[in-house]
Amino acid sequence: MAAASTMFNGGACMAPAAAAAMKNNHVALRPTVNNSNRRDLALMKKACRNKRLFVVRAGESHDSPIKKLGLSDAECEAAVVAGNIPEAPPVPPKPASPAGTPVVPSLPLSRRPRRNRKSPALRASFQETSISPANFVYPLFIHEGEEDTPIGAMPGCYRLGWRHGLLQEVAKARDVGVNSVVLFPKVPDGLKSPTGDEAYNDNGLVPRTIRLLKDKYPDLVIYTDVALDPYSSDGHDGIVREDGVIMNDETVHQLCKQAVSQARAGADVVSPSDMMDGRVGAIRAALDAEGFQNVSIMSYTAKYASSFYGPFREALDSNPRFGDKKTYQMNPANYREALVEAQEDESEGADILLVKPGLPYLDIIRLLRDKSPLPIAAYQVSGEYSMIKAGGVLKMIDEERVMMESLMCLRRAGADIILTYFALQAARCLCGEKR
């Protein structure tokens, strides 16, 4: 039985003739009454007036479905008013405490928050933060080769062949609801230069890949990276002067051409990750001037000079040839500075503000969430990914549970979207697929 069925006690309340009449004449929810069984039904009802009803419990099994008597609502109500109340399962006994449990008076608490956590259904009802595959942006590494090359420091991640492996990976992601990707190219050393001119080659790796993906999946949301480090022979996000200084305005000029080239290929969102001053406004003006008013800008607003980026630089072979990136990326010790960057990016026309890295900077995500009306993105970077993977391999943590908890924490802190290498794995988990 799927639910409890209320019945009259057949042994005590039902005359044999009436039972036969009910068996032979039951149609839908009410019995068919004819002249031959009208008398038997009347006798049955009379016999039941002084008898109680009982309940067949949901857990009980029966060889054949239990049929209703066909009483009207008014007759059922009349039986209850007359004191013929149906029986229900008894109140379960209070569970016993273990031996030795002290007997104490109840604490005089007006509020007990645990009441809202006592069952899975209640916990689900009051869950404040949710996560779905639609919240993920899948970072994908691409290269000119045809084979997918494993990235040693990032287990499960590959440099994907742009014509083959990439399309297969995007198809897998779309199957589980991840329809946004961000592209990072591994550029041949022979195409790198001090000024990164390859960044705005309309037939370069990234524009070709965008055109291929849009041809295959027109509704795919494609984010791109706007920065010179993959194209620079120096490995920096900007043009480097001979004394080692990163040139700001000259770099912004190159970034504008790069963003326009990506938009021309079909990019939906361009993402300046360089941290040059004024680049958001300049890119917005350049896009609008070329007719790309509908292309969005996701600014790397608070990108910190973090030690969590190591595996990513191996993936792109883009480590700086000298120096470091602390003159343009933010100091990890700074909090208020993120507000300065956010205010500038908002005023210059950014559509989305991004915080990078993710989990170590939850306070910055929450700061921008509270201060800005714009969507907030978080980048769960390669170091975060690799640590969880390594902990799982060593059986120190439950990889899947830690993965999902870390993503939920980013959402709870205020991230609307999360750039994560776990996008495919996490989406499969959310969709109920086995690992």
From TrEMBL:
Residues 111-120 have a biased composition (Basic residues). PROSITE patterns: D_ALA_DEHYDRATASE. It is an enzyme of class 4 (lyase). Keywords: Allosteric enzyme, Chlorophyll biosynthesis, Chloroplast, Heme biosynthesis, Lyase, Magnesium, Metal-binding, Plastid, Porphyrin biosynthesis, Transit peptide. Its main location: plastid. It catalyses: 2 5-aminolevulinate = porphobilinogen + 2 H2O + H(+). Pathway: Porphyrin-containing compound metabolism; protoporphyrin-IX biosynthesis; coproporphyrinogen-III from 5-aminolevulinate: step 1/4. GO terms for cellular component: chloroplast; cytosol. Residues 87-123 are annotated as: Disordered. Its cofactor is Mg(2+). SUPFAM superfamilies: Aldolase. Its EC number is 4.2.1.24. It is found in: Plastid, Chloroplast. The keyword Metal-binding applies. CDD domains: ALAD_PBGS_aspartate_rich. The keyword Thylakoid does not apply. GO terms for biological process: chlorophyll biosynthetic process; heme biosynthetic process. Pfam families: ALAD. PANTHER family: DELTA-AMINOLEVULINIC ACID DEHYDRATASE. Belongs to the ALAD family. Homooctamer. Catalyzes an early step in the biosynthesis of tetrapyrroles. Binds two molecules of 5-aminolevulinate per subunit, each at a distinct site, and catalyzes their condensation to form porphobilinogen. This is Delta-aminolevulinic acid dehydratase. It comes from Turnera subulata. The lineage of its organism: Eukaryota, Viridiplantae, Streptophyta, Embryophyta, Tracheophyta. The gene is HEMB1_1.
